[in-house]
Amino acid sequence: MERLRQDLKFAVRLLWKDRGFAATAALTLALCIGANAAIFAIVNAVLLQPLAVREPDRLVLLYNSYPNAGAGRGSTSVPDYFDRLRETDVFEEQTLYNPTGVTLGATGDPQRIRAMIATPSMLRLLRTHAVRGRLFTEDDGQTEKNRHHRPRHYRARRVRHSRAPRLTDRSGRRAQRDVTTGDDG
């Protein structure tokens, strides 16, 4: 133990004499360790961890392509979605979605969260199940009928409301409109 203490004292003394070298070595180590951690996190998330859906090899992303208009990969419109539903029968399920952000909470501490606007078929396509209540139906997807009453996703409720298993009579704001959330179950 004494020998180790002496070696450490000697190392500190040498590093103190040449502070430039010590700083460069410490920064290089910190940079390399940080880069390794970041690269491993990306490789782990993308390659090593399985996707959070069942049968990911059966998922296909369809998009429109307009090469003459300079858009190699365009978005799919609502009419295109309904045309594909009507004219193709090769897919077990189809969905239309748009990633977006919403502000959750009208008063107090509003928070910006990632969200997705999707047709009700998204949940069936991902083969998910309801934690409480029921899944959305095609009637729930009719915007005029449900313009002001939209249940939020369970995960968003858990994060916003301290992981409470039941959420009733809470109000939030989405896209400058009041939205009331409730529990279907």
SSE inventory with pairings:
Blueprint: H1 2-17, H2 19-48, E1 64-66, E2 71-74, H3 78-87, E3 97-104, E4 111-118, H4 121-125, H5 154-160, E5 170-174, E6 177-181
Antiparallel strand pairs: 1-2, 3-4, 5-6
Give an account of the 3D structure.
The chain is an alpha+beta fold. It has two domains: about 45 residues; about 130 residues, no CATH class. It is about 35% helix and about 20% strand. The C terminus is likely disordered.
Structural class determined from secondary elements: alpha+beta
Number of extended strands: 6
Uncertain regions: pLDDT < 50 for 5+ in a row? 146-155, 161-185
Radius of gyration: 26 Å
Q: What is the string of helix and strand elements?
A: HHEEHEEHHEE
Biggest sheet features: 2 strands, antiparallel
Strand residue content: 15-25%
Strand order of the largest sheet: 1-2
Q: Give the N-terminus to C-terminus distance in angstroms.
A: 65 Å
Number of domains: 2
Q: What number is the mean pLDDT?
A: 76
Number of helices: 5
Give the tags:
disordered C terminus, 185 residues, alpha+beta, 2 domains
Report a brief summary of the structure.
Helix content is 37%, strand content 18%. It has 185 residues and is of the alpha+beta class. The N and C termini lie far apart (65 Å).
